[in-house]
Amino acid sequence: xxxxxxxxxxxxxxxxxxxxxxxxxxxxxxxxxxxxxxxxxxxxxxxxxxxxxxxxxxxxxxxxxxxxxxxxxxxxxxxxxxxxxxxxxxxxxxxxxxxxxxxxxxxxxxxxxxxxxxxxxxxxxxxxxxxxxxxxxxxxxxxxxxxxxxxxxxxxxxxxxxxxxxxxxxxxxxxxxxxxxxxxxxxxxxxxxxxxxxxxxxxxxxxxxxxxxxxxxxxxxxxxxxxxxxxxxxxxxxxxxxxxxxxxxxxxxxxxxxxxxxxxxxxxxxxxxxxxxxxxxxxxxxxxxx
Amino acid sequence: xxxxxxxxxxxxxxxxxxxxxxxxxxxxxxxxxxxxxxxxxxxxxxxxxxxxxxxxxxxxxxxxxxxxxxxxxxxxxxxxxxxxxxxxxxxxxxxxxxxxxxxxxxxxxxxxxxxxxxxxxxxxxxxxxxxxxxxxxxxxxxxxxxxxxxxxxxxxxxxxxxxxxxxxxxxxxxxxxxxxxxxxxxxxxxxxxxxxxxxxxxxxxxxxxxxxxxxxxxxxxxxxxxxxxxxxxxxxxxxxxxxxxxxxxxxxxxxxxxxxxxxxxxxxxxxxxxxxxxxxxxxxxxxxxxxxxxxxxxxxxxxxxxxxxxxxxxxxxxxxxxxxxxxxxxxxxx
Lengths: 290, 334
Description:
The structure holds two protein chains of two kinds.
Chain A: H1 3-22, H2 25-47, H3 79-115, H4 117-131, H5 135-146, H6 150-176, H7 180-187, H8 192-200, H9 205-228, H10 240-248, H11 256-283, H12 285-289
Helix pairs in contact in A: 2-3, 2-11, 3-4, 3-6, 3-9, 3-11, 4-6, 5-6, 6-9, 7-8, 9-10, 9-11, 10-11
Chain B: H1 2-28, H2 34-39, H3 45-55, H4 61-73, H5 87-122, H6 127-140, H7 144-158, H8 181-188, H9 191-228, H10 231-238, H11 243-280, H12 286-295, H13 299-327, H14 329-332
Helix pairs in contact in B: 1-13, 5-6, 5-9, 5-11, 5-13, 6-9, 7-9, 7-11, 8-9, 9-11, 10-11, 11-12, 11-13, 12-13
């Protein structure tokens, strides 16, 4: 089989797999919500009706109307525009926090699983210690050290999620490192780093994809949660958690300020949870039968 | 079984040492040190050096850690920079509020989640099952800080059914024995205070318990469904047992083993959620104390709260592991 034929065959396996995945209603709904979310992050500057930072005290605390479909906040800022721009912070948090956890967790898991012995014990004890903290508590401790800011809250959430990726990858490495293709690569003198990155890591792609998707929703909630507590994005940033926190003070008189960013968080988390569940079912043959 | 418990206890000691190292190091990567924080902007260089010597901050780092660990074992984390009380005392006073909230939330989650999961599994793919699964999916996706606000808006402001914050109405003189309002009301034999305490706990507990409830519903349903196709269940049916007897005696009993573990492991979720719930409902628990301490840079309180919460979390996880090993012998022989 030529390289071109091989590539075409691989592409057709992927498209068949994607089509089969999207036949699940939960996957379709989840993918649609995530697609809308991603589109918002790109299109926010073009479709947002107002500048999210623009204050208009004459229009403060206006109820939802045709001009301001989600109403305005105490400074007269358009809540819909702030919610639209907030999607960008949410996406950034997924990229930074989930990405950091993925990279750190993969590195730790690969090293622990591949080298074994005392290195494995040492790395896994560090992982155990990190898991000994309730996740938000650990994030708060890290933010307490680094100082409250959006970037620091993302780093904190990334560190909090790292142990789960490390455990997953370590398990994968332990099952893959004794397979013939890895032993063959070692026998011909392949560099250890190359073996880990080219032969072992790609075999863990599926569970990593599922975990990253499931965690994406969690990252959005937790970053918004830290911002809500004043530990993440700071005003006047249109971050969903921060907007929600600002609206909390006016909640009984202007319910719309906190309601719509909360709905946005809920929708995005729901989308990622649906997609994550569908991916997990799709790649797990036992669940597929159920 | 005893060997398993001893092995887990030894692991617990190492994990707690690790936790104490993490908490200790947080103070050492901060800009400045405790002496600077204690003295503020008014201290002279001599006073600063003298305080550093007094606090052992001039010692090598491993010696400082040993001093910290020794003091921590005696519950000494220093003095709160805000309240000027011992930091541990502040956290210890707030802990009962968090424990009461977490236990109440767990009760709500189990009392609603397990029956819903069982009923959904008894009628799989029915309309009821679909509704339960949709509701549980929504529950699992709910940001609790938003749900709390919605609860306040609907049940507190619009319907005016329940109080929107605090653990007791202002001005009510409740006796304090344990710090848990419900327990204290029972000890004092005051039904009026008990009613007030429960009234104040309903919204926070339902808010905090929602995500756990959703997860417990899903895991109960999934375990029940996988248990229904097991050989022993088929045998029970073949013997002519009635369907309720099969479900209760053979399916539910076995399905509940992993459910018990999931319930135990909810504690991490609840302790994390308690931080947000306490902030929304103005409850004087450890979470809210810690947030205020971080914002005020009151690091002795941050350290004490972190150590105590992690300790509670690790010990409860140990109890869950041991109870799971007791219920499922395969675990302890692994």
